[in-house]
Specification:
five-stranded antiparallel β-sheet, single chain, 4 domains, 14 strands
């Protein structure tokens, strides 16, 4: 590089740094002190352009690179360490390094200043955001107050006021004020309330007058009662004296005699039932009433032997020949219909048994006898002292077709128990007796036993059908107990189902100790489903394959919810409940679909309600079993969700915080959860 170029570069650098040292030394001492006082890099920072500093940085770096290259060349050419040229370039390099340090300080100061400005801007934004949140809270508070005002209901809205037409007709003008109230709804309401108050005052006065007259009448009644009480000893003496006359005239036994007289015309099975039911009622059950209904004259005509049958036949043949010319020949279908009606004809007399239960409910049993089929049928009806609540899911509980189904194991009452009827049906084209059950009644096997009818299982002994009173007596007591138990269990279910439909699980005070105090899962839905719907559910296949779901059973669906988790429970309710406990099949919708076939813990929950049912039986005879099982299901769902591990990648609080106390959350290779509740300690453990 030429010496002139080096001089130009040196002068340029010196100008950028404020002149040569001689020039700086040539300045006066006072001027130097004044510059020191005034000079400040922060003040200089505001006046400097960052882009110019960047360009100066690049130039300084390039110049420093050139100087270093020249020093290397000089040393390579043999220049000594302390030579003038090397020292000059080293001095120039130091000047460039000082320039770079200054630019570095300025850059850091700019960065600090930018951060401070950013922090101040963030603080201003935070203040504005806080103000916004305060305003939103005030808006929400005002909206709530507005909603309360809009939803406010005054006490006068609960009063059933008379209509406006009756108000204007009955109220005087000083209260009605039609010229004002007809155009102002507010004044109209006030006037109607005034008229209501006036009417109630009048009614209060009438009530006081009625009370006074009632007291007067009551006093007169008391006087008459005292008079009648004084007559009681004399009447008792007269009644005692008339006992021989009553005994002689048989007056107290008139009704019994009438029933006995009518009973003579009963068919043998109904007569056996009548005698045995009366005997059982007198000896063991005073709440069993037996009565006979039907056409007695027609029954008498059936029991009479046919007189002059030949003359009747000849007369009937003559009449038939005369009528053949007047009417068409009956078709084959009409003849079959007449034969079917004749085949299924009932005896004119029937027997009614009224079985009174504890809560004043009465089970009415109507027994019929099919003369040509030689079987008995029964129809049922339940009457209660109070109207039962109309629960949708309880529609089939007291239905006549399902009320007495399977009173004894396997006794469905859909087909006739008499083997001979199968051949009779083939002659008249009857496919199955179940098509006529609704009209004729159910031929349960226990009905045949009460009537003393015994049908052999072997078809070769069909003619050995016999009627026996001993057979009826041996089944009477047990059957009456089963009938009472069936009605009581169905009535209890009928009372529980409205609560279940309103998402309330009724748990009696005797069963409170079976569950913890705090249960977070709730029953969201309880509905009745059909047998076909139950069969189509994928998680009930094990139950259906095992033959535990039959058409005679009742089926329900319970949905238990907590947060985002939903547990579906398909319930099979056997007609013999609570002797046969309900069967639950579970499916959980949470983070996917799970069932007892895919999740060991769901299988353990099914075991809690299905296998360990004795813990949930409650007081005998166990009418609280179903509701206790549903409550246990809610508790098990709480334990399942609270002990389930949370994903570590998900921030925030747990969806299901742990509320239950567990000794161990999981156990064994299957990672089973502690579903067993220990009372009174209040913790959950494994079985």
């Amino acid at each position: 590089m030429s010496s002139e170029a080096q001089k130009k570069r040196k002068s340029k650098v010196l100008r950028s740094e404020g002149g040569t040292p001689e020039m700086r030394r040539g300045r006066g001492e006072g001027d130097h002190q004044q510059d020191v006082r005034v000079y400040s890099e922060e003040v200089e920072l505001d006046s400097r352009d960052p882009e110019q500093d960047y360009n100066q940085y690049k130039e300084s770096c390039e110049s420093l690179t050139v100087l270093m290259s020249e020093i290397q060349e000089l040393k390579a050419s043999g220049a000594k360490e302390g030579s003038v040229e090397v020292e000059q370039r080293r001095m120039q390099g130091c000047i460039h390094v000082m320039t770079l340090k200054k630019l570095n300080r300025l850059a850091h100061m700019r960065l600090k200043k930018g951060r401070d400005q950013t922090h101040e801007a963030k603080q201003r934004v935070d203040v504005l955001h806080l103000q916004l949140q305060n305003l939103l809270y005030e808006v929400m508070h005002l909206q709530k107050e507005i909603s309360k005002c809009l939803e406010f209901k005054s006490k006068h809205e609960e009063i059933d006021l008379v209509s406006e037409e009756e108000f204007y007709e009955g109220a005087p003008e000083e209260i009605s004020r039609p010229q004002l109230t007809k155009n102002d709804p507010h004044q109209l309401t006030l006037a109607r309330l005034d008229w209501e108050l006036e009417q109630r005052k009048r009614l209060a006065e009438k009530y006081k007058e009625s009370q006074a007259s009632r007291e007067t009448i009551q006093k007169s009644i008391e006087v008459k009662k005292e008079h009648l009480t004084s007559l009681q000893p004399g009447l008792n003496a007269i009644m005692q004296a008339s006992l021989p006359v009553q005994e002689y005239l048989s007056m107290p036994f008139e009704q019994t005699q009438k029933q006995t007289e009518i009973a003579r015309h009963l068919p043998p099975p109904l007569y056996v039932l009548f005698v045995q039911a009366n005997a059982y009622g007198q000896a063991c059950d005073k709440n069993l009433n037996v009565s006979i209904s039907g056409d007695v004259d027609e029954a008498k005509a059936l029991s009479k032997p046919p007189d002059d049958s030949q003359d009747d036949e000849s007369d009937s043949d003559a009449e038939e020949e005369q009528e053949k010319t007047k009417r068409r020949r009956p078709t084959t279908g009409g003849q079959l219909d007449d034969k079917r009606k004749e085949m299924l004809k009932r005896h004119p007399l029937s027997l009614c048994l009224d079985l009174k239960c504890k809560d004043d409910s009465v089970l009415h049993l109507f027994f019929y006898y099919l003369m040509n089929l030689n079987i008995m049928t029964v129809k049922t009806k339940v009457s209660t002292a109070t109207d039962l609540s109309s629960a949708i899911s309880a529609g089939d509980l007291l239905k006549a077709d399902t009320l007495l189904s399977c009173l004894y194991t396997g006794d469905h009452g859909g087909e006739t128990p008499n083997p001979a009827n199968r051949y009779q049906f083939d002659k008249v084209g009857i496919v199955t007796f179940a098509d006529y059950v609704e009209e004729l009644g159910h031929p349960y096997m226990w009905v045949q036993n009460l009537g003393g009818l015994h049908f052999p299982s072997d078809t070769s002994e069909v003619r050995d059908v016999r009627v026996g009173s001993s057979l009826s007596a041996s089944h009477m007591e047990n059957t009456m107990k089963l009938l009472r138990g069936r009605v009581q269990s169905r009535l209890n279910l009928h009372k529980q189902f409205p609560s279940l439909e309103h998402s309330i699980i009724p748990v009696s005070s005797e069963c409170q100790h079976l569950f913890p105090t705090k249960i977070l899962s709730r029953l969201a839905r309880w509905i009745a489903i059909s047998h076909q719907e139950y069969m189509h559910l994928p998680y009930t296949r094990q139950v259906t394959d095992a033959g535990l779901a039959k058409e005679t059973d009742l089926y329900f669906m319970a949905v238990v919810e907590r947060g985002t988790a939903r547990l579906h429970a398909a319930v099979v309710l056997n007609p013999r409940y609570p002797e046969v406990s309900p069967l639950f099949s579970l499916s959980l919708s949470w983070k996917g679909e799970r069932s007892g076939r895919t999740d060991d813990n769901l299988r353990a929950m099914e075991s809690e309600v299905n296998v360990f049912k004795n813990e949930l039986q409650g007081p005998r005879p166990g009418h609280q079993l179903l509701t206790n099982q549903i409550a246990r299901l809610c508790v098990c769902l709480d334990v399942y969700l609270e002990t389930e591990g949370q994903d570590d990648g998900v921030e925030g609080p747990r969806e299901f915080p742990r509320e239950k106390m567990c000794l161990r959350t999981v156990r064994g290779p299957n990672r089973l959860k502690p579903f067993k509740y220990n009372h009174p300690q209040g913790f959950f453990s494994h079985r």
